[in-house]
């Protein structure tokens, strides 16, 4: 029944969709409902969960026509978990509070429910400006006066007598939240994926839902190290890298899900549905199977009681004791000064926020503006990442996480850096006009960064980012973050040769980086050890190694003596088996006239330490030469030319020996007229490598390699030492240098059945010394169990590194 303060036909908006009342007598009599209006702005607001009022509503049976939908304001319908509670303070002013009510014991609004419901919000009034009250909100208290189970007139009187500051205790039906779909890449460690799952068709974890859910995160597992996966997350799909095979986990059995997850590779992408609200305990069905995804661990089963003990449906909550920070940097949250870095549940649903730009006016208070920002790197935009409880942003109810700030008081921030945005916000004055746009999809890119920084704040290991540096590097070692005990936050897995975009290299110990794919796209984000930290760690390890034989000093002296005696470069000639090659064939014999090779030196110099190489991307205008080092190189070189003669070739060498009758100049050799001329060309760096045999000089010139690379358009196969790699780089003929790294002496013997153990050991030692001396110049390091596997990997490296754009050493060194 309507009050005589507002005609029934004035009701509009969502109230018009309410179920029909039992009687229309009030409409016929033209009675009015009370209208309480105000155009004044609210003075203050407290967002706090409140307990159920001490004066409980009577349970009244509703009629068959009553509604229990989310749009209903039934005070007694459903369980308490279906309701959100809120306390709001409004300032009345001279024109009221700005909303209409209906209901009461003498005039139920819906069925027999006596709740006092909000039926209309007056545009421009205090309630509309405040923005948090909604149609169908149930008013429980006005100041300290309960309006539960009271006549309509009593509620009206309580509102009239409430004074200028009116504290309203309200509740509303909790709106279901749409899940966010995110992709999370995990790198398996010794402890596997490190989480438990439950659910599946026939074993539903949630009634009516065949989904696979995360029920526990194991300490030390990949999921815990990564930090983004949470209890309650729903697994949608699992994808193996780098093969990109996928398994959809929707509507599959529990056993199929377990099998798909156990058969994953070292790098796994999980497509996950995340919900902000925890699942209600009543949703857990009895004894679903729960599987723990640990490496080499039997499947574990848990009852529903165990799941509750694990708090399986409670997502990690923000730390309420987190002290505010004021830092700057590419991905550091800027805290516009406020109290706690905790965001309370928002009253605004995702459907309420338009995706078009909108204007929001905030007035700074003692807590500043009350939100945090992320972004500002590479023109990606500035996004709101946290709404601080009780601050102006929270009070207004008009901002939410995922809003991109387009401008502040007319100052364009669409392409601003993080520092520029922070300074603009801090200097914006007391009244700040924001132009924002809700872009949740774009904001999801920052989820990993935000989590990482929260972890760093909690552990006190936030990187110093006041002087950011961004660069591209090539990794010269393999890195598994699961094996790094000192890692302060989520690490980034990478292999030797991977290109990394270091987005922040300002810290002495840890850098922030992404992996760069062959397509040029970037994936993953995490912490990696800095150049300084990694090299210090390796040197500390190497100091524990005890060398035998000649001292490093003696070896360096002997090497210098050889350099003084021989102006020539170290050379292993194509027409003579080198010492390494002879060992592969089972013989220790080598040509007596062979010039000693630096790479064959027995030097035990202090081991070089490799970390990262600064690189730049260039466009190839030629076909890159190929240098393969290590065991099997001759076999692989021959196989490449035999299988792909149209793609691979060899260059014509130079020599000072006289031409024989059957030889053709520039086909068999470039015959040099005099030794003096060739010596001068060598000293002028026109040769990538040269040597002496039977008093004659032989060598491979830069011009010969360029002839094959540019004019013939083929990969020039070069049988040279590691020294030639750097000389080709200087000549801007960047080779694809591949090192075949044997796994063991036994592996070498398996590759060549004729080789003795002693010969295999010498070959293995030479390979290790090659890596030590030239490791920083290798494009890739290839390992395998069989020659066929290694050959296939070599061809794949060549395919990936053939252009048209490639990463090459940069002029600026780290």
UniProtKB/TrEMBL annotation:
<dbReference type="GO" id="GO:0007399">
    <property type="term" value="P:nervous system development"/>
</dbReference>
<dbReference type="InterPro" id="IPR008144">
    <property type="entry name" value="Guanylate_kin-like_dom"/>
</dbReference>
<dbReference type="InterPro" id="IPR016313">
    <property type="entry name" value="DLG1-like"/>
</dbReference>
<dbReference type="Pfam" id="PF00595">
    <property type="entry name" value="PDZ"/>
</dbReference>
<dbReference type="GO" id="GO:0031594">
    <property type="term" value="C:neuromuscular junction"/>
</dbReference>
<feature type="domain" description="PDZ">
    <location>
        <begin position="87"/>
        <end position="174"/>
    </location>
</feature>
<dbReference type="GO" id="GO:0097120">
    <property type="term" value="P:receptor localization to synapse"/>
</dbReference>
<dbReference type="InterPro" id="IPR008145">
    <property type="entry name" value="GK/Ca_channel_bsu"/>
</dbReference>
<feature type="region of interest" description="Disordered">
    <location>
        <begin position="577"/>
        <end position="606"/>
    </location>
</feature>
<dbReference type="GO" id="GO:0043113">
    <property type="term" value="P:receptor clustering"/>
</dbReference>
<dbReference type="GO" id="GO:0007268">
    <property type="term" value="P:chemical synaptic transmission"/>
</dbReference>
<feature type="region of interest" description="Disordered">
    <location>
        <begin position="52"/>
        <end position="76"/>
    </location>
</feature>
<feature type="compositionally biased region" description="Polar residues">
    <location>
        <begin position="589"/>
        <end position="602"/>
    </location>
</feature>
<protein>
    <recommendedName>
        <fullName>Disks large 1 tumor suppressor protein</fullName>
    </recommendedName>
</protein>
<dbReference type="InterPro" id="IPR027417">
    <property type="entry name" value="P-loop_NTPase"/>
</dbReference>
<keyword id="KW-0677">Repeat</keyword>
<dbReference type="InterPro" id="IPR001452">
    <property type="entry name" value="SH3_domain"/>
</dbReference>
<dbReference type="InterPro" id="IPR050614">
    <property type="entry name" value="Synaptic_Scaffolding_LAP-MAGUK"/>
</dbReference>
<keyword id="KW-0728">SH3 domain</keyword>
<feature type="compositionally biased region" description="Polar residues">
    <location>
        <begin position="1"/>
        <end position="13"/>
    </location>
</feature>
<dbReference type="GO" id="GO:0098609">
    <property type="term" value="P:cell-cell adhesion"/>
</dbReference>
<dbReference type="GO" id="GO:0016323">
    <property type="term" value="C:basolateral plasma membrane"/>
</dbReference>
<dbReference type="Pfam" id="PF00625">
    <property type="entry name" value="Guanylate_kin"/>
</dbReference>
<dbReference type="GO" id="GO:0098839">
    <property type="term" value="C:postsynaptic density membrane"/>
</dbReference>
<dbReference type="GO" id="GO:0019901">
    <property type="term" value="F:protein kinase binding"/>
</dbReference>
<dbReference type="InterPro" id="IPR001478">
    <property type="entry name" value="PDZ"/>
</dbReference>
<feature type="domain" description="PDZ">
    <location>
        <begin position="183"/>
        <end position="276"/>
    </location>
</feature>
<keyword id="KW-0472">Membrane</keyword>
<feature type="domain" description="PDZ">
    <location>
        <begin position="359"/>
        <end position="440"/>
    </location>
</feature>
<dbReference type="GO" id="GO:0045197">
    <property type="term" value="P:establishment or maintenance of epithelial cell apical/basal polarity"/>
</dbReference>
<dbReference type="InterPro" id="IPR036028">
    <property type="entry name" value="SH3-like_dom_sf"/>
</dbReference>
<dbReference type="GO" id="GO:0099072">
    <property type="term" value="P:regulation of postsynaptic membrane neurotransmitter receptor levels"/>
</dbReference>
<feature type="region of interest" description="Disordered">
    <location>
        <begin position="1"/>
        <end position="29"/>
    </location>
</feature>
<feature type="compositionally biased region" description="Basic and acidic residues">
    <location>
        <begin position="18"/>
        <end position="29"/>
    </location>
</feature>
<dbReference type="GO" id="GO:0035418">
    <property type="term" value="P:protein localization to synapse"/>
</dbReference>
<dbReference type="Pfam" id="PF00018">
    <property type="entry name" value="SH3_1"/>
</dbReference>
<dbReference type="InterPro" id="IPR036034">
    <property type="entry name" value="PDZ_sf"/>
</dbReference>
<feature type="compositionally biased region" description="Low complexity">
    <location>
        <begin position="60"/>
        <end position="72"/>
    </location>
</feature>
<dbReference type="GO" id="GO:0043005">
    <property type="term" value="C:neuron projection"/>
</dbReference>
<feature type="domain" description="SH3">
    <location>
        <begin position="468"/>
        <end position="538"/>
    </location>
</feature>
<feature type="domain" description="Guanylate kinase-like">
    <location>
        <begin position="623"/>
        <end position="799"/>
    </location>
</feature>
């Amino acid at each position: 029944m309507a009050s005589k303060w507002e005609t029934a036909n004035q009701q509009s908006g969502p109230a018009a969709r309410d179920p029909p009342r039992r009687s229309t007598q009030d409409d016929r009599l033209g009675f009015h409902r009370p209208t309480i209006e105000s155009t004044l702005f609210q003075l203050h607001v407290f967002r706090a969960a409140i307990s159920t009022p001490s004066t409980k509503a009577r349970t009244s049976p509703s009629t068959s026509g009553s509604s229990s939908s989310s749009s209903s304001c039934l005070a007694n319908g459903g369980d308490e978990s279906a309701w959100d509670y809120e306390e709001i303070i409004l300032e009345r002013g001279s024109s009221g509070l700005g909303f209409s009510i209906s209901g009461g014991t003498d005039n139920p609004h819906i069925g027999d429910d006596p709740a006092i419901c909000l039926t209309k919000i007056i545009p421009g009034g205090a309630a509309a400006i405040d923005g948090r009250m909604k149609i169908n909100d149930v008013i429980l208290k006005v100041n300290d006066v309960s309006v539960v189970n009271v006549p309509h007139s009593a509620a009206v009187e309580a509102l009239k007598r409430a004074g200028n500051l009116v504290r309203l205790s309200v509740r509303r039906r909790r709106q279901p939240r749409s899940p966010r779909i995110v992709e999370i890449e995990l790198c398996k460690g010794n402890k596997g994926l490190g989480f438990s799952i439950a659910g599946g068709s026939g074993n539903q974890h949630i009634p009516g839902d065949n989904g696979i859910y995360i029920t526990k995160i194991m300490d030390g597992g990949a999921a815990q190290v990564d930090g983004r996966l949470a209890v309650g997350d729903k697994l949608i799909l699992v994808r193996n890298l780098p093969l990109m095979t996928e398994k959809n986990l929707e509507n599959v059995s529990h056993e199929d899900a377990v099998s798909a997850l156990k058969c994953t590779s070292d790098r796994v992408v999980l497509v996950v549905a995340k919900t902000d609200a925890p699942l209600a305990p009543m949703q857990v069905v009895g004894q679903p199977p729960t599987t723990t995804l640990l490496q080499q661990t039997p499947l574990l089963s848990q009852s529903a009681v165990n799941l509750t003990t694990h708090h399986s449906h409670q997502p990690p909550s923000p730390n309420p004791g987190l002290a505010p920070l004021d830092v700057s940097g590419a991905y550091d949250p800027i805290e516009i000064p406020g109290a706690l870095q905790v965001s309370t549940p928002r009253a605004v649903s995702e459907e309420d926020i338009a995706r078009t730009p909108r204007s929001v006016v905030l007035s700074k208070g003692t807590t500043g503006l009350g939100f945090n920002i992320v972004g500002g790197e590479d023109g990606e935009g500035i996004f709101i990442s946290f709404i601080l409880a009780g601050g102006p942003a929270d009070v207004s109810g008009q901002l939410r996480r995922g809003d991109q700030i387009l401008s502040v008081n007319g100052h364009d921030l669409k392409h601003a850096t993080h520092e520029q945005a922070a300074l603009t916000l801090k200097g914006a004055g007391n009244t700040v006009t924001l132009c924002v746009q809700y872009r949740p999809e774009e904001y999801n890119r920052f989820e990993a960064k935000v989590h990482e920084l929260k972890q760093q704040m909690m552990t006190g290991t936030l990187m110093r980012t006041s002087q950011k540096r961004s660069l591209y590097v090539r990794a010269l070692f393999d890195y598994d973050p699961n094996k790094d005990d000192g890692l302060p936050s989520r690490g980034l897995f990478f292999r030797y040769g991977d290109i990394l975009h270091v987005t922040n290299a300002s810290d002495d110990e840890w850098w922030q980086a992404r992996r760069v794919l062959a397509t040029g796209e970037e994936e993953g984000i995490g912490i990696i050890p800095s150049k300084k930290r990694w090299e210090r760690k390796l040197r500390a390890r190497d100091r524990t190694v005890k060398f035998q034989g000649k001292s490093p000093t003696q070896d360096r002296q002997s090497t210098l003596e050889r350099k003084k005696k021989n102006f020539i470069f170290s050379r292993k000639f194509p027409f003579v088996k080198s010492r390494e090659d002879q060992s592969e064939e089972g013989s220790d014999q080598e040509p007596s006239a062979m010039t000693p090779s630096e790479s064959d030196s027995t030097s035990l110099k202090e081991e070089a330490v490799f970390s990262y190489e600064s690189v730049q991307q260039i466009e190839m205008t030629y076909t890159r030469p190929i240098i393969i080092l290590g065991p099997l190189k001759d076999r692989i070189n021959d196989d490449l030319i035999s299988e792909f003669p149209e793609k691979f070739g060899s260059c014509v060498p130079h020599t000072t020996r006289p031409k024989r009758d059957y030889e053709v100049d520039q086909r068999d050799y470039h015959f040099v007229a005099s030794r003096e001329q060739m010596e001068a060309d060598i000293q002028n760096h026109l040769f990538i490598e040269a040597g002496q045999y039977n008093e004659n000089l032989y060598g491979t010139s830069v011009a010969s390699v360029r002839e094959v690379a540019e004019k013939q358009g083929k990969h020039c196969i070069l049988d040279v030492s590691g020294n030639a790699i750097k000389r080709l780089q200087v000549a801007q003929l960047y080779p694809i240098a591949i090192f075949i790294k044997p796994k063991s002496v036994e592996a070498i013997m398996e590759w060549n059945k004729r080789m003795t153990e002693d010969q295999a050991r010498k070959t293995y030692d030479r390979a290790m010394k090659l890596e030590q001396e030239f490791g920083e110049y290798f494009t890739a390091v290839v390992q395998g169990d069989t020659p066929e596997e290694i050959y296939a990997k070599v061809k794949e490296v060549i395919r990936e590194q053939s252009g048209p754009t490639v990463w090459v050493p940069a002029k600026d060194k780290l």
